[in-house]
Every structure is written in structure tokens, then in C-alpha cells.
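We emphasize that the prediction below concerns an isolated chain of 101 residues; any contacts that depend on oligomerization or on bound cofactors are therefore not represented. The input was used exactly as deposited, without trimming of termini.
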Amino acid sequence: MKGGWVYTLANRAHGVLYIGVTADLDQRMWEHRNGHGSIFCRRYGIDRLVHVEEYPTIEEAIVREKRLKRWRREWKIELIESMNPEWLDLGTTFSSASSRT
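Result of the prediction step, given as a C-alpha cell string:
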């Protein structure tokens, strides 16, 4: 079984949010940043990785993604700010490969 990632993107601090799931976070971030992500992300310029969670299986990540998508916006913002209060782009310093070593 391959692990999975749940991630939250934003276009700016407190801006438009997008929650996704993937088995390959580095590849998925490349896709988002190069216009190959979702239409929604392209439309709103959403490419700042502001929150990420790793799971042992993709199935667990999918369950978490579905739960987060049902959360109220305020709760999503609280989650992001609990780990990333400055809404920094974690994609510039984060590598899924390095987190598994």
C-alpha cells in the first residue's frame, strides 16, 4: 500500500481554499503550479501550499479529505493557522520525499 497526502492550497492568506488528496505530493504540486491542476485552482490562482498531512495509506487520506471538505471555513482556517500562522507557502520548503526519511 502506498501512503497518501491531504493538502490545502490557497491563493493568499485567508483567500480561496482548495483541499485535495494525492499519493505523490511533489508531482501534484508541480501540476498545480504549472497549470495542470484542477480548473478551480487555475481559475482562482490557487497554488500556495498552506497545510499538509501525511497518512500511511491513500484510503486514510481520502477519508480525511472528505471530512475536511465538510468542515466550516472557519475551522479550516483555524487548522491552517495552528500549523502555519503566517500562511507561508510550504511548497517552497517542503518535500514529501524528505518527510519519509
